[in-house]
Amino acid sequence: MSSPKNTSPPASIAEKEAPKDEANNNKDLIVELENLSKEKDSLTKALVRSNIGNAKLGGLEKDLNLSKSQYQWSLSIFYFSYVIFDLPSNIIMRRWRPSFWLGILMFFWGTVATAMAASKNFASIASARFFIGLFEAGAFGGLIAYGISQISDDRLKTWQWLFIIEGIPTIVLAVFTAWYLPNEPESAKFLTKEEREFASTRLAEDAGASHNHSWSWAQVASVFTDWKTYIFMAVYITGTSALQGVTLFLPSIVSGLGTWPTPVSQALTTPPYFLAFLVTVAVGWSSDRYFERAYHMLVTNIVALLGFLLLMFLPASNVAGNYIAACIVTVGVYANVAVKVAWFNNNFGGLTRRAVASAAIVSVGTIGGAIGGQIYYDPPKYFGGNCIAFGCMAAQTVLVIILRILLARENKRRTFLTDSQKEQEIEKYGGYDLVGDRHPSFKYVL
């Protein structure tokens, strides 16, 4: 017998102002949860994903006898496995113990990253990159690469040391993750009793009891009939094309600006990422402070577009100007990522619906990484690559404007619905258990 349809709205949908104490608890809880997730994962992910760009300067392309086309495909193949495995991985994590699943992925991810040092030819480096993308489903990379380049060892090449030193910490961190990362608020040892109770309440309001791992295939299907999913995919794929192109080729771009030795080129890739880190934090704080996404993305996109124009049209003799332009581009393409991810997560309601939407958007959007690995084909100026990246960022800018207009129009439409019309919309989408962000009282974040 099917269970009766829920006829009472979840508390999270009710239009009421949260008490001051609740708002403070919410703020403190978010800070602690964000610190846990970001500090343990982001740095190793950035290092392993982008270290092949520094490895090229360390002699990887020459030592493995890679053609230009083979090197570019070794960059792009990572994203094919990432796209294929990202959604299934998120489904497994939703239905199983997240700490163990993440720990397993990180362990094998770090193992393959370290094993890349044993690559002998195109087949081995491409295979390793494929599995890196599968198991993954650079702020300080340049600085680390600079230090590694000073190692004097006839047994291993510079690029081999780079893969080993940046891969082993991930293996160690994987064990820590499986043991320490909580599967649900009730098992979060780093939270106080009050914070655990508050977190459980928030999750229950959003999508049922947090310890209930039941899977709603109706909510899964609803993601792929929602127009927002496809616009967010397009926003993600255009931005990722430019971002990953810059990430993978920044060491080569910087190296092409002057005649300095390889270690200096690797060290010079650090300031752009450090600036991007500072601006990303500032933009993220401002976006959360004002609870606004689209305009923040547009500002960072304008910065990126300016940087690409400078890289395209500044004369090659203007080394300082081109380096500053590279810094501007890096800041622009990276600073909107956190805002972009927060935006689509804000606008999908319900744990299952949000998890599937997030995985689908990121998975399909990551195809942009494969594109980014192919566009920088014309060294040392890379005019064609920068021109394509400029077009991608311009397209994303247009999509962000369109998306904001559509979301604002939908919010306005919902304010004029009568009570009977609201009930009809709720029934249209399967009742309160399935309606999620399509509830007439849900206001989309702009």
UniProtKB/TrEMBL annotation:
Principal location class: membrane
Record's compositionally biased regions (Polar residues): 1-10
Superkingdom: Eukaryota
Membrane topology category: Multi-pass membrane protein
Residues that span the membrane, as ranges: 99-118, 130-149, 161-181, 230-253, 273-291, 298-317, 323-343, 355-377, 383-407
Record key words, sorted: Membrane, Transmembrane, Transmembrane helix, Transport
Recorded GO MF terms: transmembrane transporter activity
Extent of Basic and acidic residues compositional bias: 14-25
Subcellular location: Membrane
Keyword Lipoprotein included in the entry's annotation: no
InterPro entries membership: MFS, MFS_trans_sf
Gene Ontology terms: cellular component: membrane
Region (Disordered): 1-25
Protein name: MFS general substrate transporter
Organism of provenance: Rhizopus microsporus var. microsporus
